[in-house]
Amino acid sequence: MTTPAVAEILSWYASETPGTRANLARMLNTGRLAGTGKMVILPVDQGFEHGPARSFAVNPPAYDPRYHVELAVEAGLNAYAAPLGMMEAACDVAVGELPLILKTNSSNSWATAKDQAVTAGVDDALRLGCAAIGYTIYPGSDAFFDQLDKLRDLAAEAKAVGLAVVVWSYPRGEELSKDGELALDVTAYAAHMAALMGAHIVKVKLPTAHIEQKDAVKAYDGLDTSTQAKRVAHVVQSTFAGRRINIFSGGATKGEDAVFDDARAIRDGGGHGSIIGRNTFQRPRGEALAMLGRIIDIYLDRDTDGEAIPDQPLG
Amino acid sequence: MTTPAVAEILSWYASETPGTRANLARMLNTGRLAGTGKMVILPVDQGFEHGPARSFAVNPPAYDPRYHVELAVEAGLNAYAAPLGMMEAACDVAVGELPLILKTNSSNSWATAKDQAVTAGVDDALRLGCAAIGYTIYPGSDAFFDQLDKLRDLAAEAKAVGLAVVVWSYPRGEELSKDGELALDVTAYAAHMAALMGAHIVKVKLPTAHIEQKDAVKAYDGLDTSTQAKRVAHVVQSTFAGRRINIFSGGATKGEDAVFDDARAIRDGGGHGSIIGRNTFQRPRGEALAMLGRIIDIYLDRDTDGEAIPDQPLG
Amino acid sequence: MTTPAVAEILSWYASETPGTRANLARMLNTGRLAGTGKMVILPVDQGFEHGPARSFAVNPPAYDPRYHVELAVEAGLNAYAAPLGMMEAACDVAVGELPLILKTNSSNSWATAKDQAVTAGVDDALRLGCAAIGYTIYPGSDAFFDQLDKLRDLAAEAKAVGLAVVVWSYPRGEELSKDGELALDVTAYAAHMAALMGAHIVKVKLPTAHIEQKDAVKAYDGLDTSTQAKRVAHVVQSTFAGRRINIFSGGATKGEDAVFDDARAIRDGGGHGSIIGRNTFQRPRGEALAMLGRIIDIYLDRDTDGEAIPDQPLG
Amino acid sequence: MTTPAVAEILSWYASETPGTRANLARMLNTGRLAGTGKMVILPVDQGFEHGPARSFAVNPPAYDPRYHVELAVEAGLNAYAAPLGMMEAACDVAVGELPLILKTNSSNSWATAKDQAVTAGVDDALRLGCAAIGYTIYPGSDAFFDQLDKLRDLAAEAKAVGLAVVVWSYPRGEELSKDGELALDVTAYAAHMAALMGAHIVKVKLPTAHIEQKDAVKAYDGLDTSTQAKRVAHVVQSTFAGRRINIFSGGATKGEDAVFDDARAIRDGGGHGSIIGRNTFQRPRGEALAMLGRIIDIYLDRDTDGEAIPDQPLG
Amino acid sequence: MTTPAVAEILSWYASETPGTRANLARMLNTGRLAGTGKMVILPVDQGFEHGPARSFAVNPPAYDPRYHVELAVEAGLNAYAAPLGMMEAACDVAVGELPLILKTNSSNSWATAKDQAVTAGVDDALRLGCAAIGYTIYPGSDAFFDQLDKLRDLAAEAKAVGLAVVVWSYPRGEELSKDGELALDVTAYAAHMAALMGAHIVKVKLPTAHIEQKDAVKAYDGLDTSTQAKRVAHVVQSTFAGRRINIFSGGATKGEDAVFDDARAIRDGGGHGSIIGRNTFQRPRGEALAMLGRIIDIYLDRDTDGEAIPDQPLG
Q1: CB contact under 8 A, E96 and C161
Q2: Do residues E202 and E195 touch, judged by C-beta distance below 8 A?
Q3: Distance between CA atoms of residues E256 and E187, nearest Å
Q4: Is residue E203 annotated as part of the catalytic site, yes or no?
Q5: Chain C residues inside the 8 Å CB shell of D60
Q6: Site from B192, B215, B223, B246 to mutate, C interface, most C CB atoms within 10 angstroms
Q7: Residues in contact with D192: Cβ distance below 8 Å, sequence separation at least 6, in sequence order
Q8: Taking the CA of residue C238 as centre, how many other CA atoms within 13 Å lie in the half-sphere pointing to its CB?
Q9: Cα A266 to the chain's mean position, in Å?
Q10: Of the candidates D74, D92, D97, D134, the residue with the CA atom closest to the CA atom of residue D280
Q11: What percent of chain C has a predicted confidence (pLDDT) above 90?
Q12: Which chains touch C (3+ CB pairs under 8 A)?
């Protein structure tokens, strides 16, 4: 039966249909974190973003779309997100077991605009048996309004048929400096706008302590932003006082310790989990499984590397 | 990952979308029978058929729609089937955990025709997060052609959005005697027609050894129909040589031993499971759970009453 | 490239789209009769009409929907016709090789009206990769007008998406005696009405020499109806002077010689082929293949039983 | 250029689109009667009504759908009307030359109700290049309201795409005696209702002098109904004071003189022409052409048989 | 019956409808390569791209759209691809025999943007009897996102009605040098994106050993790209580990030996075939047939010029 942690989360979505809540529940009740209210999701859209060789050459079995679904099931993850073709080629591998998130827009390395193309639809999500659609927005880009228009249409259609909506919110554009894209104020604002668009799950990158917007500096006066966990806590607060599922990524491939530190910060800051792509499939399978196991342990508070936690106390 | 038993069953549905296969898999992978290819389903449409007091007075907690969902989850069943209002009132109880089958037509005690009204639609099934729609046909009734017309429309719509289709096939009408409704030839024909309509799961009543149709007597010459298991085997054969999921009910409330004998016969005859309503919710909760537990044990071949099996050898 | 025989037939359908002509061509260019302008088609809707045991008990492998598709391919037939569920369960067996005709309406032994239910649609035919839809009408029955209304809608929809339309025309009803259902005048009228409805392929039963309609007796004065071939020739003439594909069945299972005589009569009368169900699948596989091979030989004028042809001279 | 006669007729249809007026003009400007405001139309739906042998055995070339189109062109007629299959099989013969009227409903000899089935649609008429749809109503039959409902839908659809609408109005039913079906009051009423339904061309049978309705007797007091021409004039008056095209048929095959007398009466009574089926295609081709030539001469006032006209003076 | 090679390929498309699989099978089971899992396709869209004289003046019979269909049939190719008008003008030539791919977008020499116009739709493909739609994308161009939006809609519509989807992926745009358009990394990326969009068949140009993207250089470290076959193998790997049909063209007209070397490299690298336009129709008919015959022999491993193969060993 539904655990208190999951029941609490589902109560935030009382305005949605039981179908949408059921699909959120399926994601929350799958894998090793089932019932905890925490999630670890594997997204594989690197092929679109950076091309196949930069994504998979370091770990050639990952060229096969089935590899990722099998890995996600074996690692005990909550869900798997991918573009249309990847999903079509592998959705039967763990049929009915692993909740699927169909990415409905995508960008690529050669894009001449800070935008994404709509590459799949709600009808695709239904025929492929997905639990949710995913959609990326670029707050700050010239294309942002148009992206919101399209998101509104896709999200409304998804909710009408009982699917959940996951929004990746990545600030970029003329108004933002390179550092600004990861600034705390910018990240919080980006998460807030995703929630305002009706996203059920909001995905942002872990923020730095930088404050980008001059007009916002005063508002951040007095807020302790010294640790990652505290910055996560501010983003969570900015996402409807924590009443929306908030998941984080850490960006480019990096050392394992950094990955684990990220997970601890997310946990300690009250985030709902990690979405972790390149750091997963760009390692050999065994290493990836070990790393994901350790991350899940962190969310389960079975973190064996006790020293790390004192480093990140929540003020 | 998908077990060989479930993979074999899903291979029968290769013409359907991954969404429909995923919903079949969800039913097959839920509860204590998960992965075995066998199913026990709880249907509660007695209220429509016979009114609330005749259905629930013997066990008053059953008046509450949530009672049944909780019972099905606790007993480790595969799915729960109910009409629209029951589903709306309880679908959140075990949200995302228990696959739901929305009955889309229903009859009642005061009906003036051997027919059913369409009482729910595919859009309801999606917004309530159901895995399948259910539909009852009455082969032999004046309304049968009209029922098939409507089933064709509902089934096509359901398949297009990735839902599964469960058909209850209950022969009745001018051409059939009372005994004929449970006759072996009639039951096999009823199961076959449900499969011909594109049902993914076919539900019939356990047949007697009676042969109703004069024109069919010769065809049954030489077929051993002496045991329930053998009769189940013939119905399974009549349902596309066993390439469709075939589940059985035993009819009116009866003694526990009869219920267990039914389950053994279904198992030994190659049926895929039991659908068991009144015999469940018209017993006190504890008794019901014990009985369902024992039935599931039978399908798991953990039948502690070892003597029963030799009583039902398949020739 | 298209043979003269096939090109001549396709020229009759110049008002249809290339898609519909292509699907007619696919049927005419498949199997051992490819390119001859003749067809032998296997229909399996006996399960709906008479139930599974009466249909398949005599040859149990035929319970499996895949059996029939494999048989049709091995025998070198032109096409296979079946209801929705049968087609869903076996359409992948000879994927893309054997043209499929989806029967879109069906009756059954317990029907209380001389009617059929619509059991499949044009969308089903497309998703299952069929070349044509099939539809049965009962000229003379109370339901006939309603059947034509529905046929008109299905046929218009099929033609718009490039499918072919096959109409089974079986007279029955109050106005016709039992003998009358197979009468020559009645059969010719039934074939004519199917053609008037826009059928591309018209299927009737082989007619007797009986003239049923009093008002028609005079019109048949002087027409030689003494042989089956001559009666076939009149039906063909009644089907737009032979400018529509006209195929025939011989009815109930019977001796092989009768089946071969039928084929010779169809050939000599200018019919386009045989549709042969029970006589095929109710024999053991080897016998069925031998019989179908001989029938095809007859259409190829490789009839080894030379004596039979002189018995059926066309005056 | 448009003649005064045709311009006058088109002015009656000012509320219709130019497309519909253009299709009326195409019929009025085709054949030997082009520009005169008069029409002779060949309808071939006898095959549906009476079966192929009763329709065509007397003149076997008429079994071929192309025969009729060729005949209509050679005779210099204004238009050709036929059901769907006949039209599909022959519409290419005189493509773009002969205006086509697609009959969209049909009855048959075995019908158990005084009704017709809808057998073609406006989409068919467009794809086959027709100028108009045709539709038959049976005022007085139980099915009349339903027929009007369907006519309203078809006519509205036809007008929206610029097609003309021809209505055959044939009274029959419980309330009418056999003689009453051709009664003057009944025919006038039937023509009026067709016009009220929005028909552009109204087709009725030539009326007798009988008055069927008791309530109507008084209204006919003092009206001279002694000649066919005077009765035609009353029907024309009843059809919006002659502001709708009104064409007549003479019923069953009969002697040539009777046919010519009919044409003279239609002409003298102010009718717009003849629709003449069986009397055409049930004669040998040469005879039919001669007869049609003579009828057209009558409408052109080049009636060589001068004696006939004084016989039918309009009082 | 389906060969193991074709069955293996069809298994990659398990998420599609039987209709789509049947159309893929029709392409794989046509021509001299039927059943081998290899394909040679003739595309004729040069007229749109470069104008008629530059396309056909060198071989004037090629101005006639029927020329190409006849050539493809005579050469025993698997399919023919062309824009709407070419298809309408010739689809009846080999009706039902040669699978047709309707190109649904096209560019031209005077285009002011690196884009294509949508020039045909799924409804066109159905009415013309096509097995697939074709669509070209320009990864890297300003119009790329818009092209993907439109491809998503066309592909979803095509899949819903059982058609296959072929995507031509041609990198071009500001971010790419002229050499870069054929670079190995760029080609692999272009093929990958086509697969991600849900293409069933991916068509790219044979890549050079150049690596265009600075960020990708490291990923190609250690990959042997010294032969064409090895480069083909990398593109195939990049297209879902070879689980999508991957076909190649060699670009501009060139000597025969180069064409044969290309085919050997595609074969040895695990590609599924050649798409060869200008090199076919810009030669005299006899030469073209000889050349296509030799290419097919190469795919059949009946390569008579044995010396060529050792030149292209797969590392």
Answers
A1: no
A2: yes
A3: 24
A4: yes
A5: 237
A6: B192
A7: D238, D239
A8: 33
A9: 12
A10: D74
A11: 88
A12: B, D, E
A118–E149 C-beta distance less than 8 A: yes
Pairwise CB contact (< 8 Å): A25 & B95: yes
Spatial contact of E62 and E55, defined as CB atoms under 8 Å apart:
yes
CA distances from E103 to A118, A311, E18, E175, E203 (A): 21, 61, 22, 27, 13
| A-B contacts at Cβ under 8 angstroms | 110
Interface pTM (ipTM) of the complex? 0.92
What is the DSSP pairing of strand E164-169 with strand E132-137?
parallel
Average pLDDT (C169-177) is: 91
C80/C77 Cα distance (integer angstroms): 8
Per the CB < 8 Å rule, is B18 touching E17? no
Whole-angstrom distance, CA of residue A125 vs CA of residue A127: 6
Look up residue D28 and give its two tokens: 């009025």
8 A C-beta contact, residue B10 and residue B24: yes
Nearest CA-CA partner of A26 in B67, B100, B38, B41: B100
Residues of A with CB under 8 A from a CB of B: 1-2, 10, 17-26, 28-29, 70, 73, 88, 91-97, 123, 126-130, 160-162
Residue contact E17–B17, C-beta within 8 A: yes
Inspect the interface and report whether the beta carbons of E25 and C96 lie closer than 8 Å. Answer: yes
Task: Give the C-alpha separation, C46 to B219, whole Å.
Answer: 14
User: Nearest-CA neighbor of D163 among D136, D130, D137?
Assistant: D130
Q: CB B260: neighbour CB atoms within 10 A?
A: 18
CA distances (Å), origin E218, targets A254, E189, E211 = 17, 15, 10
Q: Any contact of A with E, at least 3 CB pairs below 8 A? A: yes
Give the CA-trace dihedral at B19, B21, B22, B23, to 10 degrees. Answer: 90
Name the residue among C124, C110, C59 with its Cα closest to residue B197: C124
Q: What angle do CA C251, C253, C258 make, to 5 degrees?
A: 80
Task: Phi first, then psi: give them for residue C160, nearest 5 degrees.
Answer: -65, -25
Contacts of E244 in chain A (CB under 8 A): 85, 89
Chains near D (3 or more Cβ pairs under 8 Å): C
Does residue A38 have a pLDDT over 50? yes
Chain C interface test: which of B196, B215, B221, B246 (most C C-beta within 10 Å): B196
In angstroms, rounded to a whole number, what is the distance separating the alpha carbons of residues E160 and E123? 12
Residue with tokens 């998941």: A247
d(CA C118, CA B142): 15
**Could you list the pLDDT tens digit for every one of the 315 residues in chain E?**
799 999 999 999 999 999 999 999 999 999 999 999 999 999 999 898 889 999 999 999 999 999 999 999 999 999 999 999 999 999 998 888 899 999 999 988 888 777 888 999 999 999 999 999 999 999 999 999 999 999 999 999 999 999 999 999 999 988 899 999 999 999 999 999 999 999 999 999 999 999 999 999 999 998 999 999 999 999 999 999 999 999 999 766 678 899 999 999 999 999 999 999 999 999 999 999 999 999 999 999 987 654 444 333 344
What length is written for chain C?
315
- CA angle, A275 as apex, A273 and A279 as ends, to 5°? 125
Q: In sequence order, what are the beta bridge partners of B165?
A: B133
Closest-CA residue in chain C for E24? C96
Neighbours of chain E (3+ CB pairs under 8 A): A, B, C
For residues B211-221, one letter each, b for 16 or more C-beta atoms within 10 angstroms of the residue's C-beta and e for the rest, the string is bbbeebeebbe
Q: SS3 for E233?
A: helix
| Contact at CB, C18 and E70, closer than 8 angstroms | no
Contacts of E15 in chain B (CB under 8 A): 17-18
Closest CA to B47 of B107, B117, B134: B107
Nearest to C17 among E23, E73, E127 (CB): E127
